[in-house]
Design goal:
Helix content is 76%, strand content 0%. With 88 residues, it is mainly α.
């Protein structure tokens, strides 16, 4: 979905409905990261109300990603930093 940020966001939001069924697998962890990137990519294009909602979702995802980064920085810390960089 290179460059298709709105489509990426739509797909990530659709995946939210199914992600609960993947407990104990790597998919939800990757979804957290990709969903945050999609939200960040669309952040500047949305209304102030949606910006608040997007930022709240990203912050929630970042809390989870930071916990993972603390326990396994080799796999997750760079993802945490990439999302932070997208918000800068």
């Amino acid at each position: 979905m290179y460059g298709e940020y709105q489509l990426a966001l739509q797909e990530a939001e659709e995946a939210n409905n199914m992600i609960l069924y993947l407990g104990g697998q790597y998919g939800p962890l990757e979804h957290n990261f990709l969903y945050s990137l999609a939200l960040a990519a669309n952040y500047k294009k949305v209304s102030p109300d949606l910006k608040k909602e997007y930022l709240k979702k990203i912050q929630e995802n970042q809390k989870q990603l930071f916990i993972l980064a603390e326990s396994c920085p080799e796999n997750f810390y760079h993802k945490y930093l990439l999302v932070d960089a997208e918000l800068a």
